[in-house]
Amino acid sequence: MLSTNRREALQFLIAAGGMAGLPAIAGAAGEDPVFAAYQRNAEQDPWTLIVRDAPADGFSGDAQLIHGQMPSGLSGTLYRNGPGRFSRQGWRYRHWFDGDGFIQSWQLANGRVSHRGQFTQTDKWVEEEAAGRFLRPGFGSLPPGASGLNGPDDMNVANTSVMLVGDELLALWEGGSAWSLDPETLESRGPRRWGQGLDGVPFSAHPKVEPQTGIVWNFGQDAFNDRLVIWKIGPDGQLLDAGLIPDIPGGMVHDFVITERSLVFLVGSYRYQGRADTFNGSFGFEAGTPMLAVALDKNDWSQRRTWELDPGFLFHFGGAWESADGEIRLDAALSDDARMVSQGAQMIMRGEPEGEFGSHTQHRLVTLGAGGRARSEVLGPDYIEFPQVDPRFVGRRRRQTWHIAWSEADERGATRIERRDLETGTQDGFDHGEHVFVEEPLFLPSERGAEGEGWVIHTALNARDRRTELHVFDALRLSDGPLASWQLPYACPFGFHGCWRQA
């Protein structure tokens, strides 16, 4: 149960922090140049399908096997979440992260794959679908005539990630409630209520699950007031604890890692600089401000250790582990700037490749040592994103990381899936070729317990065929190519993150 002071502090966060209380600010009306630019580019470039509006009633269909056969022992459902609605009434969002959440399920059983995709029925989606236009401001967009906000969930798009806890499927965002869904039908049940006055408190998109206990750790950020929220949830979905952590700079924290003893955050140099028309507009990259690493003791959140690293920015970690003397090692997709979130995601909405404003994230191994000393090592010259680890080794010493990869010349995104051995530096990977753009991979463990024993599964856009595909690999033999591949009769917008439910 929450102590009185923790509960009151969290209730204050909802009343006075976050996006609550923002007034209405009129956006620009008239012909929309972003909508027009996307329409022009979409006529010429099928890559733009990654940010095409999904139909309001969603998708449903069977995927056709185009290569190989389903591996024995692989049976279950892949859930994916991402933005799916970007325009209404000839006006288009300015930022990729603003699109309304679109949940997809891929059911793998008896050698067959069936697919379903539908919008999460947040309050925002329901109201705007009825009105036929956007009514609320977004992360990086201000639609014409947008109304003010009374709380974070007024603009909740539930579009970033998805997780299973207890018998619930939760669609996750950054700034407000998780949204509860039926894992079979994908029908929305409403915002997840944790009780004890915590409605609407930020619940971020990257929870971590302890493999030994099943305990779920998560966080939320109150960047306006330099605070984090910490969540501790039981395997059955019951809240175990929550509380506020003060004096964490507002650096747009998206992900974190856990060790067996600590919760570890990297606060990037993309810092909150004061209220603006949009949340993203409130931030700017401070080239002279170092990244800050913070480790909180799992058993006593008041106990923290801090380190400074060179200025930079990140969205995603691989994993972390901690030695007996307290040294922490972690790997992440780190960049020297925040061009992707500040400019690249806007170019995508116009149907233009990001180019120099893309995500120049390199795979780096970070060591947080005794005495506050920290160092960062670049593991390879190419760019990577969406690093993944074997979930059986979350928080524990490990060797393997899986990720997508691309080079400077790949303007339209990643076509490669790779695995890197952190101890030897060796890589194994597969390139789908110039027409197939890959999404986040997910590691699916087999029944055997050795690290890396299992499969890697990922979705992709085949721009030549204008269709979405699903590929399954032996996780330790990516260069052998897919064990099996399927193709849908249609193309879906790109998602961000996913999870797996074993049958």
> What's the helical proportion of residues?
under 10%
Strand content: 35-45%
CATH class: Mainly Beta
Count helical runs: 4
Number of domains: 1
CATH fold label:
Methylamine Dehydrogenase, Chain H
CATH architecture descriptor: 7 Propeller
Report the end-to-end length measured between terminal Cα atoms: 33 Å
Q: What's the total count of β strands?
A: 34
Oligomer, anyone? single chain
Q: How does the overall form come out from the CA principal axes?
A: globular
- Our Rg estimate from Cα atoms comes to 21 Å
The CATH H-level superfamily is YVTN repeat-like/Quinoprotein amine dehydrogenase
Q: What kind of sheet is the major sheet? A: 10 strands, antiparallel
Query: Uncertain segments of ≥5 residues (pLDDT<50)?
Result: 11-26
Return the structural class: mainly beta
Write up what this structure looks like.
The chain has helices at 4-16, 33-44, 123-131, 339-349, and strands at residues 59-68, 76-85, 87-88, 91-92, 100-109, 112-119, 161-165, 168-172, 179-181, 188-191, 208-209, 216-222, 227-233, 239-246, 257-258, 262-267, 270-272, 283-285, 291-297, 300-309, 313-322, 328-335, 362-368, 374-378, 383-388, 400-406, 416-421, 427-431, 436-438, 442-445, 454-462, 467-474, 484-487, 497-502. It has one domain (4-493): 7 Propeller (Methylamine Dehydrogenase, Chain H), CATH 2.130.10.10. It is mostly beta strands and 503 residues long. Strand 9 (179-181) and strand 10 (188-191) form a beta hairpin.
